[in-house]
Every structure is written in structure tokens, then in C-alpha cells.
Design a protein that fits this description.
single chain, alpha/beta, Rossmann fold, about 15% strand, binds flavin mononucleotide
């Protein structure tokens, strides 16, 4: 099982960091791609540098590397998670505009009918954003905005991040106990 983790230039790169950590803990291979905008947001929002994220991954590709195996449908990967997903990348994916490796790997996942999770982050959402999400959802793309729930009574920011990442693992079919489930509370 290989999961492609794409980090784009939206707030909430902490979710990507945590996802890479828990996938590594479970010995699940990850291919990592980071957009240029995301690199700057990582420097601003995270207490860890980009190299820390690269070291968590199994393999890393630059976002302009169209010679990466990930750019071809003939290369096997299980799923793609775009976390967080900017409105720009959302729009590009919704319209098949593959001008970088992140958009290309999403395009590949859609055409090959593979699992793809987008975690769009913006507020408020415009009709353009909503239409792009609806279009992709109808194609089978999982639209999973990083919206926490509070019924588990989180005490720390880490608890909130783990709820969101745990729900992503649920959707990928990876067992986890990162958060308190309704019914167990
Ligand atoms: C600090 C910071 C936070 C940003 N947060 C968001 C965001 O939450 N959502 C979003 O759609 N764009 C956000 N942007 C703007 C995107 O980074 C910008 O549109 C960029 O072109 C996205 O490119 P990418 O999708 O290739 O990473 C943010 C930019 C900065 C500098």
C-alpha cells in the first residue's frame, strides 16, 4: 500500500505533518509532494521544517517533476490525499488542469478510479469553490474538509488534529484509535 500525500498552500499543514507521522508509525509507504506555496506556509505554521516532513516520507518528489513515476497511470499507488487542499489546486483538479505533479497525480487517480481525498480549506466558501467540490464529489472524489467535531471533548490542539487525521485513516481503511468515537464516550 502506497499513499501519495500532497501538501498545498492552504492553512492547516499540521494535518499533513500528523498524517505522515501516523502512516510512518504503521509502516505505510508514502510519496510526498509539496507545492511551493505550501513550503512557505510550512515554515510559517509548523514547529518543524520541510526536511522533517521529507524524512517521514518513503519518497519525495518536487512538484515540477513530471518524470516522476507518479505522473503515470501505469505506476501503482493506493490513494492520494491532498492535505490541506488550496482552492487553486481544487479548481485545477476539478478542471483537469495538470500544470504540476500534484494536479497530475490527482488527474491520474480520477482517471484510474483510485481513491482520492481532498481536504479543502477556506472560509467562507464561494459558489466557485462549492461547484468545484460538487463536481469532484460526483466523480467519486472524497471531499473531506478538516472540520473537527467536539463531542469527544478535545483538550489540546493535538486532540483536534488527531480527530481529523483519524477520520482520514478511517476513510483509507486504516484501523486507528487516534480519537474518541461517538458510542465509546
Ligand atoms: C499564510 C497563507 C495562508 C493561505 N491559506 C490559504 C487557505 O487556507 N486556502 C486557500 O485556498 N489558499 C490559501 N492561501 C493562498 C494559496 O497559497 C495560493 O492561492 C497558492 O497559489 C496556492 O497554490 P498551490 O495550490 O499550488 O499550493 C494562503 C496563502 C498564505 C501565504
Amino acid at each position: 500500500m502506497k499513499v501519495v500525500v500532497c501538501i498545498t498552500g492552504a492553512s492547516g499543514v499540521c494535518y499533513a505533518k500528523r498524517l505522515l507521522e501516523v502512516l510512518k508509525e504503521r509502516d505505510i509507504k508514502t510519496s510526498l509532494i509539496i507545492s511551493s506555496s505550501a513550503k512557505r506556509i510550512i515554515e510559517h505554521e509548523l514547529d518543524r521544517d520541510i526536511q522533517y516532513l521529507i524524512d517521514l516520507s518513503y519518497e519525495y518528489y518536487e512538484n515540477n517533476d513530471f518524470f516522476s513515476p507518479l505522473a503515470s497511470g501505469s505506476h501503482k499507488f493506493h490513494s492520494v490525499v491532498v492535505v490541506p487542499c488550496s482552492m487553486k489546486t481544487l479548481s485545477a483538479v476539478a478542471n483537469g488542469y495538470s500544470n504540476n505533479l500534484i494536479c497530475r497525480v490527482c488527474d491520474v487517480a480520477i482517471k484510474e478510479r483510485r481513491k482520492i481525498i481532498l481536504m479543502p480549506r477556506e472560509m467562507p466558501l464561494s459558489p466557485i469553490h462549492l461547484e468545484n467540490m460538487l463536481k469532484l464529489s460526483k466523480l467519486g472524489v472524497v471531499i473531506m474538509p478538516p472540520i473537527p467535531a467536539f463531542y469527544g471533548k478535545p483538550k489540546t490542539v493535538e486532540d483536534i488534529v488527531d480527530f481529523v487525521v483519524g477520520r482520514v485513516l478511517d476513510n483509507l481503511g486504516i484501523p486507528n484509535d487516534l480519537f474518541r468515537r461517538w458510542g465509546d464516550i
